[in-house]
């Protein structure tokens, strides 16, 4: 199994866990858990594959991704009541999912020889769109757009790191590892220590 | 006209009616009715075709689908005021739409020789995503995720029925009929008699 | 640079400005501005390209579209506080974006020799879906579905104008100009003078 495939599996597993936890907050049944878990797990990578005309889409080619996501949802369904603070788990698991999904997306676009801007965008899309779909469908405030937090910025910084590393003639493996590390480090710093970029503030809050 | 095409037409017609009824609840004009009706009617099948790289997309190939959905929207626009309880109509019509869209999606994936997991997923996606788009765009609580009801479970059960029937060497026609029957039976039982799967319940409702 | 490419650039630029202004209402940081601006700017055209199987998608082929949208977002980030009434700017800029995006989508479908119904739909999708994504993601009431206003109707009228003009043997250039003019004229009339189509009104407002 290649490193890229491994990243895809890891990202599917961790995003599925976050999807199932959000489903538990919406009090769905076990099939609802599996539905939201699958949507979250494969959403970002699916958009990436459609945009790059990369067929068959990764999980259509290998249904194990779906079985993995559904299995993770089942485990969360029977164990989520053991978890004290589910939203905290969602946020932290989501940070790990981001840190594997961004290199997965970046790596796929690099392997297709796309120009740097597209590589960075594919990393950002793969990392953020599954979680965005999860939050829109379950009616949560999207993590990706939460005010005063770094999220999409972490994805961008990670993807730019990978592109820079490749440009500096590093191998793909280390470049993607650096990408994931930058991504997770910034996101964790934002969650734990409140790191953020200046936000736009209007004098009258809404006009 | 093949049986599969017939299923596509029926699903477009009935989903369009539900879309137009939801548009009436949002008090849109006649073009808004047609827009929501078309989105609902072709949304699920479009996602199916994009995921399976099945080009041209069914309604790009045959614009009659769009004319049918728009016509249905027009009829609803001038007659919806005659209907007593529109939400009840939406729910019941939607159950019929589900019961034709799931076999339509399942049949299309079967005809492409996809493996069972993908066939089941395509049935589920075709059946549920049009209605999900309708509800997200019109800001209704998505039927597909309503708590304590069977919906996506009905789609899954129906699609699994079709796959099992094919595996047992039934012809495609009867297999898809069985698929639709299981799908509609479960959904109708859920609406009329409250059938449901156990839902996840946390002690403190949100943590 | 062809006339069609020019339309694509203009539509990306103006839609990006509206996206960034909506991001300012959600008080995002500069990367959030760029994200919403890009989603709005390329969303409609991306759906058009995927539906028509037109690969590579226009901005994957030419990353300058993304740089343009991100640059526009940056300029809005540092200047939006100078603007008195941001929502008014969003609405008027959006009307110009619509009036270039609809001819852009119509022209692309015409160039592929699609039948009239599909050409009209592609114009409507390209014109409206980017703004719809912007509003759903940022949790605004979608402009496209605002009650008692012309929006999707303007897109339809413009696209029908183009198809009729081509059918009357006009050149593509003038046909697309007429399309944009009709589109903008109707939308501006709706904003400024309240032009609208009769909306559906139920006796009891929601049943």
TrEMBL record, chains A, B, C:
**Keyword field contains Membrane:** yes
* PANTHER family from the UniProt entry: INNER MEMBRANE PROTEIN, UPF0126 INNER MEMBRANE PROTEIN YADS-RELATED
* Any one annotated GO CC term: plasma membrane
Q: How does it sit in the membrane?
A: Multi-pass membrane protein
Major site of localization recorded for this protein: membrane
Q: What is the lineage of its organism?
A: Bacteria, Pseudomonadati, Pseudomonadota, Alphaproteobacteria, Rhodobacterales
Q: Where found, per UniProt?
A: Cell membrane
UniProt name for this protein = Membrane protein transporter
| Residue span, Glycine transporter domain | 6-80, 92-164
Please list the coiled coil stretches: none
Q: Which domain of life is it from?
A: Bacteria
What Pfam families does its record include?
Answer: Gly_transporter
Indicate the family of this protein. Belongs to the UPF0126 family.
Report the transmembrane regions from the record. Answer: 6-23, 30-51, 63-83, 90-111, 117-137, 149-168, 174-197
This protein's species is: Phaeobacter gallaeciensis
Keywords assigned by UniProt?
Cell membrane, Membrane, Transmembrane, Transmembrane helix
């Amino acid at each position: 199994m290649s490193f890229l495939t491994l990243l895809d599996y890891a990202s599917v597993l961790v995003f599925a866990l976050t999807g199932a936890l959000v489903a538990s907050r919406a009090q769905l049944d076990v099939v609802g858990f599996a539905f939201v878990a699958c949507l979250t797990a494969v959403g970002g990578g699916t958009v990436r594959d459609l945009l790059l005309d990369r067929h068959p889409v990764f999980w259509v080619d290998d249904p194990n991704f779906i079985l993995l996501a559904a299995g993770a949802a089942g485990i969360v369904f029977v164990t989520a009541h053991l978890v004290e603070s589910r939203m905290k788990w969602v946020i932290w698991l989501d940070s790990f999912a981001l840190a594997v999904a961004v290199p997965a997306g970046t790596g796929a676009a690099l392997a297709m020889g796309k120009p740097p801007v597209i590589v960075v965008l594919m990393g950002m899309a793969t990392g953020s769109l599954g979680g965005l779909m999860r939050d829109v469908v379950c009616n949560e405030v999207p993590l990706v757009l939460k005010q005063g937090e770094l999220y999409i910025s972490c994805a961008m910084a990670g993807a730019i790191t990978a592109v820079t590393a490749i440009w500096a003639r590093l191998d793909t493996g280390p470049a993607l590892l650096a990408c994931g590390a930058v991504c997770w480090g910034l996101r964790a710093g934002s969650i734990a220590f409140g790191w953020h970029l200046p936000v736009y503030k209007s004098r009258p809050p809404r006009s």
